[in-house]
Automatic annotation (TrEMBL):
The lineage of its organism: Bacteria, Pseudomonadati, Verrucomicrobiota, Opitutia, Puniceicoccales. It holds the Pfam family HHH_2. NAD(+) binds at D32, Q33, A34, Y35, D36, S83, L84, E114, R137, E172, K289, K313. It comes from Coraliomargarita algicola. This is DNA ligase. GO terms for molecular function: DNA ligase (NAD+) activity. NCBIfam families: dnlj, PRK07956.1. The active site is at K116.
Amino acid sequence: MADPQKTIARLRAEIAEHDRLYYKEAQPKIDDQAYDRLKAELAQLEAANPEFDFGAAPSPTQSVGDDRLEAFESYRHRKPMLSLDNTYSSAELIEFGQRLLKRFPEQALTYLVEPKIDGVAVSLSYEDGALVRAVSRGNGIEGDDITSNVRGIRGLPDKIQGAPTVLEVRGEIYMRHQEFERINAARAAEGQALYANPRNLAAGTIKLLDPAEARSRQLDIVLYGIGACEPGNYFSTQSEIQQKLKEWQFPVLEKYWLADDIESAWKCIEELDTLRQNFAYPTDGAVVKLNDFAQQEEAGYTSKAPRWAIAYKFEAERAETLLKEISLQIGRTGAVTPVAILEPVQLAGTTVSRATLHNEDEIQRKDIRPGDTVLVQKAGEIIPQVLSVNLAKRPADSQPFIFGEHLKALGIEAERDPTQAVWRIVSKDDPIRQQRALEHFASRACMDIENLGSAVVEQLVKRGMVQTQADLYTLTEAQLLELDKFAEKSAQNLIAALEASKQRELWQLIHGLGIPHVGKQSAKDLEANFDSLEAIASATEEQLEAVDGIGSIMAQSIHAWFADSDNQSLIQQLKAHGLNFESARQAQADGVLAGKTVVLTGALPTLTRDEATKMIEAAGGRTSSSVSKKTDYVLAGEAAGSKYAKAEKLGIAILDEDEFKQLVG
Ligand SMILES: NC(=O)c1ccc[n+]([C@@H]2O[C@H](COP(=O)([O-])OP(=O)(O)OC[C@H]3O[C@@H](n4cnc5c(N)ncnc54)[C@H](O)[C@@H]3O)[C@@H](O)[C@H]2O)c1
């Protein structure tokens, strides 16, 4: 029998380390369920052995995980931000209700059941209706000032009407699945460590020190609670909070339920489980709260969580299956990414036959080998991941997977990047690397060259007809006729498609060049801020970084790419072939908004933000997110906040939607 005192000490140290990785680094090593199991084990041992004294440090079972970092200013919450007790069992949920019934034997208990959003907690302070500060949960008492990374999150009002003098609004910052996949795909292409889920990526993003880098990742926010409120007595129930938050035009929960007893609350949770796939935000459970504030106050708090609420967490969908082989894929920049090829298995409503293995270090850490039986998880729309290996089912003759040897066996000449976990094909003459770069260039999201699929690219490279993107434009019909399955018609079609691609928009070309870190959105951001490809090529790192959405790493990468002599010669050749290098903005130089900067604020009566932005761009203008002396117009809708006030102060022309429409015709 293990010594319980030693086990408690070990578990506390282990959990403290997982807390550090999760809250401070946003890179946990184990998944939430495994973590929650460790914590439950510790709580049980502590309860059974109350006599052990471990000194002053509180146990992780008694305290709120701490996300504070040195580099940030700390702010004290007016009211503490606590965690929630959680359970994965419906029986424990019912017990929670029964405990409350004992406490309030004569009273009717109503519960509010809310989706539990899987993001990062935030507290927003509004003073006299204006957003003054955003603070992370921290240790529950004080948190980090993350205002610069939170202000400007879409839909978050800068100003609210008819609010109390002081208001702390509590909610969750989260990332949509699509944005998560976009960023991870870009990181994978660069061989950088991937984020395991949108929650970790959101947590990493709000703690970025570079606001431009943070802005280049799209965060969202939803608000569901109130901390401090002065004057008090503003609310008497949880459901009133929901209504008021909506009136104040905060992004709010799309659905919540009122339940008259804990059994009905459980029914609501079951309903939530069927609906949540269609919610905009990732959810990992439900939060059940006593609706009445007087009852909440009476039920009280532990050092870590309210006694009047509980989180019911949904189990992530997992299954065991056979890992048939580890396949190595090569990206457009030559990075080699390992992928698990699985015996197909049903998970979260889809058939899963591949899972990401991230990089060499991940394979080593988990000691994943071909022939292993592995535990695979799929949550929401996230790419399936291999969580662990079932060692009991490992074949006797199994061999560790040695990355470098497999590359050699496949004839791939790659080197491990000394600073990252990635193997990369270094030689630009490598035919596989050339193929990937060309496939990317020809793809829909780039130059959209019809009839130039992988099979054709492969032949062109293998026969030495094409090495770079520029070589594509030297191809003749006669040359194409040499290719397998090419007749006159298909050759003519491809030549015509190449010709048509010369007129693509500038962002499509930028994206197609395969500059490390530059995806579709960044390419668009570059086009919106420069007149031509040459202007981007000659921009300094500072000028690149000044672009909204371009962070320092991306600016460095773009600058280095254009400084490379091979790339410079590629650009010259593409220019000589007549590809469009001019930004649409430049082409619209004659528009009424040519050279003008417009700031959008508030909700417009009929136009969406996207539509208004397109109209501004079509008229030659550009949009910016903040009002300054350089702003020419502010297009203001309903509930326009501090930007409106600033524009008035600076004497900048303010347009409503009708005036704007007249202006751009
Ligand atoms: N994998 C790891 O290594 C690791 C390490 C530490 C923590 N964790 C995970 O984090 C959990 C503990 O984190 P926690 O303290 O943030 O607790 P929690 O995430 O389980 O619950 C509390 C949080 O829920 C959020 N929340 C979402 N929707 C809400 C709603 N409608 N109403 C109220 N709150 C809502 C709030 O941000 C609140 O702070 C653990 O149970 C574990 O799953 C994992």
